[in-house]
Amino acid sequence: MAAHQIGIIGLGKIAQDQHLPVIKANPNFELLAVSSQRGLSHEDAKHTFQDYHDLLKLPEVEAVAICTPPQVRYVIAREALLAGKSVLLEKPPAATLSELEDLRHLADKMGKTVFTTWHSQYNKAVDEAKKALAGWSIKRLQVTWKEDVRHWHPGQQWIWEAGGFGVFDPGINALSIVTRIMPEPVFIKNASLEFPANRDAPIAANLTFSASHGTGDLQAVFDWRQTGPQSWDIEVETEAGLTLKLSHGGSCLEIGGRLVVQEKPAEYEGIYRRFDALLTIGRSEIDDAPFRLVADAFMIGKRVQVDAFEE
Amino acid sequence: MAAHQIGIIGLGKIAQDQHLPVIKANPNFELLAVSSQRGLSHEDAKHTFQDYHDLLKLPEVEAVAICTPPQVRYVIAREALLAGKSVLLEKPPAATLSELEDLRHLADKMGKTVFTTWHSQYNKAVDEAKKALAGWSIKRLQVTWKEDVRHWHPGQQWIWEAGGFGVFDPGINALSIVTRIMPEPVFIKNASLEFPANRDAPIAANLTFSASHGTGDLQAVFDWRQTGPQSWDIEVETEAGLTLKLSHGGSCLEIGGRLVVQEKPAEYEGIYRRFDALLTIGRSEIDDAPFRLVADAFMIGKRVQVDAFEE
């Protein structure tokens, strides 16, 4: 089978760091075109456009990866589907749940693949954690996602605007692991969202979950004010006494205190293997569970004002 | 076919005002049991329980109408489905979208009917508005939902708590009409939510929508501080020049300035006719579109603090 001819829309940091090198290393994809509003080009692409509409006009393009900021993803994805292209969406897949739902209908209607990617799910440690927890009742879940926003998001004003998600931008990665590994769905029961006095997005959040079964103690804390060591950890304890710890953003797994997986992250390699498979069989994979938890947290969360944040 | 044997869980105002008389008047339903945590009973019901678990144990009960506050609906609905009962849910159908999604899966798994009711949709004027707008591009949408919270929700503290929805409690009725009548889906583009300094839920909201097609001016304003005349109006203008106004919460319709429908609301009569049909054919109807718009508005909305609210 010939390689999938792909285009990348939006040449920001994630496209440069991940999508471009991973596509180049995967023989089942061929980078046909890129589009960049800022007029960036890339040596590997045969075609470079400033306007993504021109990229969508190329009949050879089978699929596009949309790597723009989330606010414009829906409009681009919709036009891509209507142009007969399949679509890979960076996380979060759209600005709102209603936009994503419309893409689901449109993918069905056009018979094209839509693939919502949640990169943190593509770790061997996450797969192994899911297997280890399958079928058990959960007694305790503690998600600790604490990082220094000044280090990881310097100068990114849009993340602080309404709709920019704030600390849920990294937090949704944790939630995407939670929805993957938990043997039963979890729901937001209570949330407190800490908004700096001068910002329209939360800098920290405390979430309490409930599950259908049992009375487990299920918690998450997200904080963007962490200096020193950074934490991207998920600890789980089952009713039967199994303990499990995912650390380093989902790339290391300890079970019962013993290190069982420690691998260099290769998340985007896994994403493109999955996209290859979905394109080949002509199926979509639209997972809105992490995004729904974020919307639920904003909807039922209590807002608390905290100190102004200056970069 | 024998009448559907039904139970009502939660005997608050909406059960007393609507569900009980409407069930009594519909020969296709027979009220078998009620449950009320406060120990209320009802003369029409053969059985009265304080604990809804006892109601769910009655093998003759085919379906239950859940009329409790939204926070506990999911847990009750889940237990009802697992007990083999079909479920009618008052609006909003759950506390969070993730809870509703789980009920969708469970309804499928159990082969039972789940019916999310949006009472404002059950008006002839709404049906006629939908027909009139089908196939047209929308130039302007103006939703004006302004009422006096002191008059309509006296002493209801839970609506002011986080997760109590605030002005979206009536506002979701407007959104349920919008999602019903608009010929294309709409999305929240911007929102500003006004929170009283001493409350955890908004007292007013301004929403701007976008649609897949066109560049229409689509707006909604919800306000709970309205004294004097109350407004529950939806005005629509199509690109082709058709103007339409739904007023009085969806019970009156003017097209081109001419009154075409003016009927005494009979919303719950319509809801129970629909439930009868769904039970008879064994299908679910789970419409999360209005609820999704509310979650989207909270997720991307800008919070603005306004004067404290005292009853």
Automatic annotation (TrEMBL), chains A, B:
<dbReference type="InterPro" id="IPR036291">
    <property type="entry name" value="NAD(P)-bd_dom_sf"/>
</dbReference>
<dbReference type="Pfam" id="PF01408">
    <property type="entry name" value="GFO_IDH_MocA"/>
</dbReference>
<feature type="domain" description="Gfo/Idh/MocA-like oxidoreductase N-terminal">
    <location>
        <begin position="5"/>
        <end position="115"/>
    </location>
</feature>
<dbReference type="GO" id="GO:0000166">
    <property type="term" value="F:nucleotide binding"/>
</dbReference>
<dbReference type="InterPro" id="IPR050463">
    <property type="entry name" value="Gfo/Idh/MocA_oxidrdct_glycsds"/>
</dbReference>
<protein>
    <submittedName>
        <fullName>Gfo/Idh/MocA family oxidoreductase</fullName>
    </submittedName>
</protein>
<dbReference type="InterPro" id="IPR000683">
    <property type="entry name" value="Gfo/Idh/MocA-like_OxRdtase_N"/>
</dbReference>
